[in-house]
Amino acid sequence: MKRELVSGIFLLSLAWSAAPARSQGAAQPAQARPAQLQVAEAPTVALSPSRILLETFYSGAQVHVTGTAPAGTEILVTVKGPEAEEVLNRKARVGPIWINRGKVHIAGAPSLFLSFGTRPAGDLLGRQVLDRLQLDEAAIREGMRISPEEFDQPVIRANFMAMKKNQNVYQEDAGSVKLGPAGPAGVPYSLDFHWPRKAPPGSYKVEVVACRGGGVQATASSELVLEEVGFPAWMARLARERGSLYGLLAVLAALLAGFGIDFLASRLSKKGVMTH
């Protein structure tokens, strides 16, 4: 009898200690939080193509940019080339003719600058932000470094910017970035533009800036590579490694072109005389 009583008390104590564990395990599903939609906090960017081949008959390329942006933001897309010092001739007028009056060294400006936005850059960001991040042509013009100092004049800066724009390597196009309807991943955007034919080979940074309230909320970037292949790559390598041979070939090519044009002109003129 005593043994049965002890066994009963022992089993009762085991049941009592196991009861809280079962109740806690049963309560866990009730504490689980429902899944929430992920809201984009930073833009994304994808390029097509991300590599452009500079071939013999290259005349530029069409570039497609897509991605998503945080809800409530607008988009500014910039494409920048690396900074490179340029040496230009300074022209001066002496009487009726223009002559070279020294060399101007210009640094601090990207080799290529393209800007595209949902609106003009000045409407999306404040002047201080634009200048600090060099996000428009006015910021580039002010950030240029010109030497000798006596040549650092507003007309030199203006002429440099005009030259780059005439080459189409500096462009600003407001309203070219299109936004789509917002979704769980953010607001989709898209941009199509023509890659400038005169852009030099190299690596370019494509940066997407999400703008809100005159400031930068977040950024994302990708790389676009312009690569010489085939005959242009061979000629560029020849110019770098064997400059004298390259110069000789250039002169021969010019002579052959001149003789060819003269030959065609003479043949056409003879045909024209015979028809009269």
Could you characterize the architecture of this molecule?
- The protein has 276 residues and is of the alpha+beta class.
- It has 2 domains: 46-228, no CATH class; 229-261.
- The protein has 7 helices and 13 strands.
- It has helices at residues 2-31, 121-124, 127-133, 137-143, 154-166, 230-241, 243-275; strands at 46-48, 51-54, 61-69, 74-80, 86-94, 97-107, 113-117, 145-147, 170-174, 178-179, 187-195, 202-212, 215-228.
- The chain has a 6-stranded mixed sheet. Strands 1-3-11-10 form a 4-stranded antiparallel sheet, with no helix packed on it. Strands 5-6-8 form a 3-stranded antiparallel sheet, with no helix packed on it.
- Strand 12 and strand 13 form a beta hairpin.
- Helix 3 packs across helix 4 and helix 6 (230-241) crosses helix 7 (243-275).
- It is globular and about 70 Å long.
- The relative contact order is 0.17.
- Residues 1-38 have low confidence and may be disordered.
Q: What is the overall shape?
A: globular
Number of helices: 7
- Major beta sheet, strand line-up: 2-13-12-4-7-9
Low confidence ranges: 1-38
The domain count comes to 2
Instruction: Calculate the terminal CA-CA distance, rounded to whole Å.
Output: 143 Å
Return the string of H and E elements: HEEEEEEEHHHEHEEEEEHH
Largest sheet: 6 strands, mixed
Mean pLDDT: 81
Class by helix and strand content? alpha+beta
Number of strands: 13
- Helical fraction equals 25-40%
The percentage of residues in β strands lies in: 25-35%
Tell me the Rg in angstroms.
Answer: 34 Å
